[in-house]
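QA checklist item 7 of 12: single-chain prediction sanity check.
[x] sequence parsed
[x] length recorded as 624
[x] structure emitted
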Amino acid sequence: MLYGYKILVVCTAKIYEDRFCAFISSLNESLKKSGWRIMVFCTESDLYRKNKANDGTRKIFDLINYDIADAIIISDQDIQDKLVKQKIISNAKQKEIPVVIMGNSSSDNYSISYSLNSGFEQVVRHIIEHHNIRNLHFMAGREDSVQSNDRLEIFKEVLIEHDIPFSNEMVSYGDFWDIPTRIATQKLIDSKNIPEAIICANDIMALTVISVLRQNGFDCPDDVLVTGFDGIDQIYYSNPKITTALCDHNLLGQETAQFINEIIDNKLPVCERKVESSLLINESCGCHPELRADSLDYICYVTNAFNRYRGENVSLSNLSYTIHDCESIEQVTDILSHPLLYNAFVLLKSECLDYTVDPNISHSSTTYGKSMYVCLDSDNKEKPGGYYIKTEELIPRMKDILDYYTYPLIFTALHNIDTPLGYLCFCFCSYDKQNYTKVGQISTWVGTAISGFRNMQYQRQLLKKIEVMYQHDSLTGLLNRNGFTRLYNSVLKDESIENITLAMCDLDNLKYINDNYSHNEGDEAIRIVGKALSESIPKDIEAFFCRYGGDEILGLYLGDVDEQIIKEKVDKYLEDYNLSSCKEYEVSTSIGVYTSKKKSFREMFSEADKLMYNEKIQKKNRRI
């Protein structure tokens, strides 16, 4: 519960698909009437393959705030990573949050799914009983897919029932998508054993099979009947239109909403809910279509969507290059405040603003840390970004968003390969499929842009470190000879500076300290003299200090400085040090201070050196 609303968390992938748009719109419209708000946590991939990119995108599920969730839906067929699902379920159980597995049965959790078996069985029976076909072939999905293997078993059972012998040669594997299906279909054609009908485990493979058949001179349905399964939009606009089993995603959304309310309100025990799929007869089996659709409208929509996507990709790429060159995170916010990023929040991990750490490694103990930097709140023109919120809050202005934006909030990860950078949240004001398509497009672009920005900032920090090492002395931390010479030359060119003062310190009795107390003690004495001189800056005077070589320490003061002030400050610092250090020797230094109008370094150094040696000689004479 959050701000008086019950919160449903939906964990899924590939939200750009037609079925998701239909499902989520129906689910949300049904649930918001009874005080629910939906938060969708999604990935671009189904996480089936183990790779670093998937390691990065799956981090979005670590963002789920179980303290505010009232129920969780996991789309089992869309999230193929078992460890991710188990972690979500385990976390939910600790908070006693009911979990609904969508797409498959579950003995330990609530589940809702299509009664796929009945729909697929109707397809197979239609081909055998209505069209009297006995030479059939099954284009299966992946060999390790539960859904595909279930459909294969149904295919076998219906064949056996009709006394049609089954053999493994009657099965090919198209892995549910285009390229493997093309290869499998071509192999089937090359075998010269062309079946009368090819039953496909999904619609995408059915469309691909027809394409390959046509390329080889076979017509569908005149030469080979083809059927699909799913009921995706493309089947209504293909030629021929595909006979399939229709899974009504709008109905699934309505049934799921009712199921969720019954679980919460009636405290239902763990159970399973089924939504029936049904046979949809079309042209690919030789029948007349039951439903007709306007192909021209669909072609126009797809063409416009593609052109929009392509144009936006060019614009986003150009913006990405600009972000790479930004010198501050504030500039990044300005660039992200672009018309292409609407209804959007961009939140970054705190470490993304620490340019001294390696951007290719996560440095926080948890995925997102305790606080997030709001880099963009696109709809807040007065305060579009530049502040932190607690990670558990998810986004700024959450109460206003829940009150006025009644559409689902969409969360997706920002990552650099497997390194989490933060996340995006979209609060779209419609169920437009193109908006859901933008989620992956924008997250990929923003992730790439922020990664480039961090890498550039990190490189700049490394260059600064190298510059500091190049111009500074490692023992004292003061400028070295090279750094001091460059600075002195810049002072000579500065017309606003007229007079300068150069002080030279030379450590007394360094050889004695080295010989009797070790070179480490001698180095420490040099460091203390450098510290003493650098603490001698008179009020309102700018100064720079350098270890010029060995035990020689230089101070450059921009203006006229009384040499007595410098000497008194240095002597006082060394006196205090000698009293507190309890060393068996005292650290002292001889100082030469020379003030003049700007001259070459050689001239200033020579004069200060003479004055320093005069003081050193005077000290020796006083000891004699």
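[x] summary fact logged: The radius of gyration is 37 Å.
[ ] second reviewer sign-off
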